[in-house]
Amino acid sequence: MKRIFELSYEDIMNISKKELLESIKSSEGRVVMAETDIAKQPIVYGVSNPELAASFGADLITLNLFDFNAPFIFGIDDCQLKISGAYDMVSKCNEINKIISKNRADKDYIKNVKRIIGRLLGVNMEPVPDGIDYPEGRKLNEENLKKARELGFDYVVITGNPKTGITNQTILSGIEKAARILGDETIIIAGKMHGAGNGNIYDPQVLRDFANAGADIVLICAPGTIPGMDFELCRRQIEAIHETGKMAMTAIGTSQEGSSRKVIEQIALMSKMAGADIQHIGDAGYSGIALPENIMALSIAIRGKRHTYRRMGYSLRK
């Protein structure tokens, strides 16, 4: 199986869950995931944040704040509306609603978005506890899981944005539900990249529970991103995950995606030494994306310029 940075456009469009897991494993810790907030205007006019992340070397693009009840990606779906300010947003609400209605009825919507971006696509799904006011279209529930499978997402990330109150137990329940619905079609990634309003995860047993419940890849905080998460704790957590036969992903989800390049490189090297199979960089740089240069810096730190430029170049080969 090809390593992930060797996958061509055609490979990405047709890869199965089993093949993708094999590709990630064969890459030996040289896999980059970039998360992008698609509910914000992109930082570059006319180019969506997911496209920009892809062009700077990301292999996997995770859509944050994607609403299954109102599918819309700024930078792609609004490209003909020429929105340049708040007045345009208000005056073109009817056109935006028409696009959302069209997208909602389009079973190939995400497949078409994937053709534009040219990368493996995933979506954040949040197992928000009862009583928390949160958009239904962003919650992890049976209906949205079925939509994720039907739309053709390559993976789902079961985690929590800040102040959602998501707990270890709601993540565990979400994994079990996702495993039942997604089966062999969609990769399940699960864990926390920060407290999400309900505390960080330090106990390796919690991670084993996530893996045994059905997560294919378990997400943990990258060393240096939350208090107390140093290299040694990260290494122990990853060892616990690997003991279950599953893979581990370290995440930068604490706005440090907007830090200096040196900080990104340090986190990347510590994560790789600890045994991470995938390295994630979040969306809190400018307007829903990490600093693009930091995506490339992360990639170069863990796989060098040769494979980084290969990945960047393959985005143009269709």
Descriptive notes:
This protein is α/β, with parallel strands linked by helices. The protein has a single domain (4-314), classed as Aldolase class I (TIM Barrel, Alpha-Beta Barrel), CATH 3.20.20. The protein is built from twelve helices and eight strands. The chain has helices at residues 9-14, 17-26, 49-55, 86-91, 93-105, 109-117, 142-151, 168-182, 204-213, 231-243, 261-274, 292-314, and strands at residues 32-37, 60-64, 120-125, 155-158, 187-191, 217-221, 247-252, 278-281. Helix 8 runs parallel beside helix 9 (204-213). The longest helix is centred in the last third of the chain and has 23 residues, at 292-314.
What is the overall silhouette?
globular
What spatial order of strands do you see in the largest sheet? Answer: 1-2-3-4-5-6-7-8
Strand runs, count:
8
- Helical content band: 40-55%
| Gyration radius, in Å | 18 Å
- Count structural domains: 1
Q: Tell me the strand percentage band.
A: 5-15%
Our measurement of the CA-to-CA distance between the termini, rounded to an integer number of angstroms, reads 20 Å
- The overall average pLDDT, rounded, is 94
The CATH class designation is: Alpha Beta
* CATH-scheme architecture: Alpha-Beta Barrel
- H-E order: HHEHEHHHEHEHEHEHEHEH
- What's the CATH topology label? TIM Barrel
> Which structural category do the helix and sheet elements fall into?
alpha/beta
**CATH homologous superfamily grouping:** Aldolase class I
Pfam families: DUF7916
InterPro entries: DUF7916, RibuloseP-bd_barrel
Protein name: DUF7916 domain-containing protein
Domain DUF7916: 6-317
